[in-house]
Amino acid sequence: MASASGALAALLLLVCAAAAGGGGTPDGSEEWGYVEVRPKAHMFWWLYHSPQRVDNGTTPWPTVLWLQGGPGASGVGYGNFMEIGPLDEDLKPRATTWLAKADLLFVDNPVGTGFSYVEGGNRQSLMARTDGEAARDLVTLLCALYRGSPRLRASPLYIVAESYGGKFAVTTALAALSAVDQGRLRATLAGVALGDSWISPLDFVLSWGPLLYQVSRVDEKGLQQCNSVAAKIKEQLEKKQFTDAEASWSDLENVVSANSNSVNFYNFLKDELSGDSSTTTGAAAVSTMASFRRRNGYSGYLKSMAAASSSSSSGGFDGLMNTVIKKKLGIIPKDLNWGDQSDDVFVALEGDFMKPRIEEVDQLLKLGINVTIYNGQLDLICATKGTMDWVHKLKWDGLNSFLSAPRTPIYCDNEGQSGTRTQAFVKSYKNLNFYWILEAGHMVPIDNPCPALKMLADITRSPAK
To answer: Where do transmembrane segments lie in this chain (predicted)?
Structure first.
């Protein structure tokens, strides 16, 4: 940690003495704390107030609630420091932080993720078992936060998600709307954004073989094998055999790895193993990589990117979160270690993992909620083709008009700056928007931050700066 001692010391000087349930910086720019969403179930949150906020009474400043995937990956860790927060994984200012366009609320969701925790020895009994239960806990947290914050109540709320977080986003949005109707939550839900989101597992697994064949990662034999297992998954899902389908999904990842020389599921231009080269082959390597992806692939990919940063500490990203960040926050239980991916959370949600959430997206559209879908061009696990396939299944009455609407290019040259290079396309009709982000894989804000920031400004209508 000594290599960044100056920056870390400055960071720690900002810390207030933590109150029983929370803490924050002396200038009020950051707040954090715990909410006991159920008896013995504690969810951690961290809110950043934007220095760019304009309180002129004409344009309400938005709040973005960021939901990470996994399920079980830490938004407080990865979404914050790796993707959109004010500081990067080396605690240096991020030029393309989303804080330029909105206040940012990070939550370690569901309980058991990151700094969120459950009490007692039987952890599994207190974990959320369904996407709906996870949404209930998250809305309980929002009710508590908004109840005590006039500033939050005056700010339009946008739920922005990545990967499995998209399933949490749509279920949470519907639960939040219900809580608003009941008078339990004083918030204005202004929109939901689904980034490379696991909304329809079936459409994604059906897309893997054809996509890999088209980009030369599998041959005809590999395509046939992928399609065969995907067809089995389709049959299982039609029979509502969701746990069996989850096991077959893992089998399909084995087949993909064996036939593609371990393609990276989060950017198909890369290999799964460290670096961009694969030196291990055979059944043992395939089994090892499938296990890695199944439990740690999503957060593991982010972790590998953090490890490659120029000034990573010897303790790695885990070390940063469990030393400097934990000390700054001041309220994390001493015996609680931050982890990149919670196996307990993943296992608890296995029964819901392969269930689609297309109907929930449809409900939000019919209720008039602004829904934005964005996808990285190079993603495999939530490939753009799979996303478009589930969009075609929507029953929303504006779908045909959306599909026939023209696409508009988005230009960027450098990070955060307008330019002449086509970096994305957008299509919109009424309250549905779709962004195709070029040169990006699963983690769009990392891979191509400029169009991601432009997208955020557009969907939140943040005041121009």
So the answer is: none
Give the tokens for residue 263.
């393609």
Pick the catalytic residue from 74, 116, 155, 163.
163
Encode 407-429: b = buried (16+ Cβ within 10 Å), e = exposed: eeebebeeeeeeeeeebbbbbbb
pTM of the model: 0.89
**Is 50 exceeded by the pLDDT of residue 259?**
yes
User: Can you tell me the distance from the alpha carbon of 164 to that of 204, in angstroms, rounded to the nearest whole number?
Assistant: 13
- Sign for the CA dihedral angle at 457, 461, 462, 465 comes to positive
* Cα distances (Å, whole numbers) of residue 458 to 117, 188, 410: 36, 18, 11
Can you tell me the distance from the alpha carbon of 407 to that of 437, in angstroms, rounded to the nearest whole number?
12
In sequence order, the β-bridge partners of residue 193 are 160, 372
Q: Which residues contact 239 (CB under 8 A, 6 or more apart)?
A: none
Q: Is the preceding omega at residue 445 within 30 degrees of 0, hence cis?
A: no
Q: Which of 416, 441, 415, 411 is nearest to 426 (CA)?
A: 411
Task: From residue 156, give the alpha-carbon distance in Å to each of 58, 65, 304, 462.
Answer: 13, 11, 35, 11
In the residue annotation, 49 being an active-site residue is answered as no
What topology does CATH give the domain 21-199+353-460? Rossmann fold (3.40.50)
Contacts of 97 (CB under 8 A, 6+ apart): 84, 85, 86
Backbone angles phi, psi at 41, to 5 degrees: -120, 115
Annotated catalytic residue within 88, 271, 352, 379: 379
**Rounded distance between C-alpha atoms, residue 31 and residue 20, angstroms:** 13
Tell me if the bond preceding 71 is cis, omega within 30° of 0: yes
Query: Is residue 251 among the annotated active site residues?
Result: no
- Of the candidates 200, 271, 442, 447, the residue annotated as catalytic is 442
Which tokens is 105 given? 């609320």
Phi, psi (rounded to 5 degrees) for 334: -60, -35
What is the per-residue pLDDT across 200-227, written as a single tens digit (0 to 9) for each? 999 999 999 999 999 999 999 999 999 9
163 is catalytic: yes
Give residue 265's pLDDT band: very low, low, confident or very high (50, 70, 90): very high
Mean local confidence (pLDDT), 180-201: 96
